[in-house]
């Protein structure tokens, strides 16, 4: 590692992420960001001030030793860096690509106050990709088997994180996934150009190497209930990490028209069922030269609108009721979308989806112009309609990306689970315990739609509590 003074480190310029040109990438599903080279990674890591009490670690929901892995990168010890990360994060190549580091570890970075934070996410991705190509990280093998069995319901980020820590503790772990592919939202909700499915498969394969078993097409609540897992199936504890996969809608007339999709359906068809290919069994409506509108301002909305462009849409627009400053989507995703030709229409809210007079399919949307009032519970200024300010926009396809709620199937078949009025599970925040003994939960089923890394934080917290529960003789 180059010996630099603090002043010299602070004077160094951030190393941008190499990416494909917008005109090239907007017509295919190949990954947009190209990743750091070894030289770029070392140069970025050398910007780190290596604080005595690094605030970036406090900003990481899974507590990665960021100081340690950046120090290893700066010294050129990339496999050592991978081992350091793997102690706390079993999905580093995924998190390095999709987590909102700018409001977590990078947001807490000292350099963010006077310039540009260390690109911790880019460096995490580099390390994970390097390790995958060069023999993997060195993680301790599980200890002697405990004889205890844990069922994980859902193979999304919270379930995978929980399964990893429990397997490392010596417990027998089985993950039940309702769909035919593993990964939950990582597989069905995030497009290939942002998170290649081979990355998801590779990181799940590492869990299989730890001895974690996976069962797909297993809808808990129908195949088995949680009660049956704990009794007839012989599991000692259950972790519920089924996410929030029930889409919310706009609640306006015309949502039943042909050409209207929920973002869940749209992205699931494209991601899991390869609907962008000519031979897909479940295609999406032909988008070639169509006018597509996506309602929402989060990452799912950005994923949907950028996917529509790649499927041949003539125009693809985000329609959002606040301003761009209030959008919850990552800054990088917004900038990528605009560079690719997405139009962002703000301060509008849909009143009605309109049929085409000739075909009866979707033909337009009536929009209400908005302004912003006082902040609401989210801290963002509340949108308010402007009296008499409405207009119509011609569109052929609408994608609704305004949030999700938990699927009620599992909760309906599991009596005794306390729920909020939003249909999410009530848990002890420190242990992730539910109101049912031996049943723990985490991720979007608890928080509603949130982030991959926050879900993983829940999974790790639950794993520690489950380990203690089992050690106590449960």
Count of DSSP H/I helices:
19
- Strand content is 15-25%
Category by helix and strand content: alpha/beta
Regions with little confidence, pLDDT below 50 for 5+ residues: none
Q: Brief overview, please?
A:
The chain has 474 residues and is an alpha/beta fold.
What can you tell me about this protein's structure?
The chain is an alpha/beta fold. It has three domains: 6-133, Fumarate Reductase Iron-sulfur Protein, Chain B, domain 2, CATH 1.10.1060; 149-245 and 405-471, FAD/NAD(P)-binding domain, CATH 3.50.50; 249-400, FAD/NAD(P)-binding domain. 34% of the residues lie in helices and 17% in strands. The protein is built from 19 helices and 15 strands. Strands 3-2-1-4-15 form a five-stranded parallel beta sheet. Strands 6-13-7-8-9 form a five-stranded parallel beta sheet. The chain has a three-stranded antiparallel beta sheet with strand order 10-11-12, with no helix packed on it. α3 (38-45) crosses α5 (66-74) and α5 crosses α9. The longest helix has 20 residues, at 452-471. The radius of gyration is 23 Å and the shape is globular. The N and C termini lie far apart (49 Å). The mean pLDDT is 92.
Features:
single chain; 474 residues; alpha/beta; Fumarate Reductase Iron-sulfur Protein, Chain B, domain 2; FAD/NAD(P)-binding domain; five-stranded parallel beta sheet; 15 strands; 34% helix
Question: Topology of this protein?
Answer:
Blueprint: H1 6-11, H2 22-25, H3 38-45, H4 55-58, H5 66-74, H6 78-86, H7 92-98, H8 105-108, H9 120-133, E1 149-153, H10 157-168, E2 172-176, H11 185-188, H12 197-209, E3 213-215, H13 226-230, E4 237-240, E5 246-247, E6 260-262, H14 263-272, E7 291-295, H15 299-310, E8 315-320, H16 331-339, E9 343-346, E10 348-355, E11 362-375, E12 381-394, E13 397-400, E14 404-405, H17 408-412, E15 439-441, H18 444-447, H19 452-471
Parallel strand pairs: 1-2, 1-4, 2-3, 4-15, 6-13, 7-8, 7-13, 8-9
Antiparallel strand pairs: 5-14, 10-11, 11-12
